Amino acid sequence: MNGTRRDPVVHTLDPISVSSEVGPMHAPFTRPPLTRPFTRRRRRGAAGVAVAAALVLLAGCAEESGAGDDASGLSGEIIWSDFGGPTNEARQEIYFAPFTEDTGVDVVSVVVNDAMQEEMISGGPGDYDATHVGLDLVYANMDTLVQIPEEYQDEALPENIRAYAFGTFYVGHAQGYLTDTFPDGGPETWADFWDVETYPGKRAWPGTPGSYDSSCEIALLADGVAPDQLYPLDFERCSAKLDELRPDMVFYTSYPEIQQLLVSGTAAIAMGPSGQFSALRNAGQDVTVSWEQAVVSPNVIAIPKEAPNAENILALTEYFHDPERQAEFAGLTHYGPGNPEAYEFIPEDVQEGLVTAPGHTTVVHQDSEARAEATEELLNWYTAWLAD
Predict the structure, then answer these.
(1) 28, 39, 161, 175: which sits with the fewest CB atoms below 10 Å from its CB?
(2) Are 216 and 292 in contact (CB under 8 A)?
(3) Name one GO molecular function term (predicted).
(4) 3-class DSSP state of 21
(5) What's the alpha-carbon Rg for the chain, to the nearest Å?
C-alpha cells in the first residue's frame, strides 16, 4: 500500500478491498441517491450513556484536558478515514450526523492514505482516530489498537478479535449476472462459474495485484475443496485452477467496471463484491446474484493507539453498535450487520440482499486469522499469477 497525504475531504469514491472490501481500486462511479427502504425507530436516550462510558474508560481524559461546555463532556473532532462513496454517505447520515448533534463533536471524513494507515495501525503517530480495514489486518495488529467497550462490541465477530474493532459490516464475494443473460437459469456454484460450456461468456475477474479479494478461496471451492478445508490456502492449486479459466476472463481494475462489463455484455458473469450488484439493481437492472458458496468478508473500523481524539471515537462506538442504526445501514448499503440484533429491524425483502442473512446457509466465511498469517504470501501470489 502506497499513497500521498490528502487533506480532509468528503468522499466521492467507493473502492473495495485488498483482502476485504477496501483497497487500491480507486475509481469514481455514478449511483442513484441513497434512499431509505424502511424507517428506523431512533434511539435517542442512549447517547449520554455511551459518552459517559467512554469517558469513564479513559479516566476522565476529556475533563482534565478542558473539554467544552457540551453536556456530553466532549468537544473537538474525530478524523475518520475510509474509502468514501455510498458507504461513507450512509455513515454520514446514520451515525455521524446524530452523533454530532448530540455531542457537538465534528466527524471529519478523509480518504484513506495507505502510508498513514499502515503507520498508525502498526503503532506509529498520525491523524486518524478511526480507519476502515479488513479483519485480517486487525488480527495482525491487536497490540497497537484501542479496545472497544465490551457493551459496544459486535457479537458477529469471533470472540478473540471483537474487542479490537467496531462498525462491522459483511461483504459477499459472489457471482452475479444480468438475469436475461441466462433466461433458463444461470450458474449457482463456483464450479458452475468455471463451466463455460453450460454457461457461455466471459467472466469478469479482479485484475490488480492488491485486489485478490477471495480469489484463492473461490478457485479452491471451484476445484472441489470443502469449505472447512480451505486453510491454509494452497496457492499452487489456486493458480492451477485459475489458469483453467484465464482464457475466458476479462479483468477489471476498478470495482465499478463490474457494472460496465455486465451491462455492455463484455462479460456474462462477474465475480466481485455484492455491493456492485446491488448498485446495478438500484440503477434499474434485473440482476441475479448467487449466494451459493459466496465468500463472506468482514470489514471493520479500527482505532489506532495513537488516535488523537480517543475519547471522542470511543463515544461514537455506541452509535455504531445500535441494532436499529445498523439495520438502516444494511438497508442503504446492502452489507450484512455486525450486531445480529439488527436483523430484528430489517425487512425480509432487504435481508435477501445481504450475504449474512439468516436464510443464506451455504455461504463460506473467510478465516481472517489464517489470512492475517498469509497476507504477504497472498499479495505475492496474486501479483505473480497476474504477471504470468
Answers:
(1) 39
(2) no
(3) thiamine pyrophosphate binding
(4) coil
(5) 21
- Spans of all domains in the chain: 47-170+299-351, 172-296+368-387
Parallel/antiparallel/unpaired status of strands 203-206 and 249-252 = parallel
pLDDT tens digit string along 175-202?
999 999 999 999 999 999 999 999 999 9
pTM of the shown model: 0.79
**Longest distance between any two alpha carbons in the chain, whole Å:** 70
SS3 string, 198-221, reads CCCCCEEEECCCCCCCCHHHHHHH
Phi, psi of 364 (to 5 degrees): -120, 125
Residue whose C-alpha is closest to residue 21's, from 380, 333, 370, 360? 333
How many other CB atoms are found less than 10 A from the CB of residue 229?
9
CATH superfamily label, 47-170+299-351 = Periplasmic binding protein-like II (3.40.190.10)
Chain segment 57-76, per-residue pLDDT in tens: 444 444 443 333 455 789 99
b (16+ CB within 10 A) / e for 101-120: ebbbbebebbbbbbebbbbb
Query: CATH 3.40.190.10: does it fit domain 172-296+368-387?
Result: yes
What is the DSSP annotation of 276-302? Answer: HHHHHHHTT--EEEEEEEEEEEEEEEE
DSSP 180: G
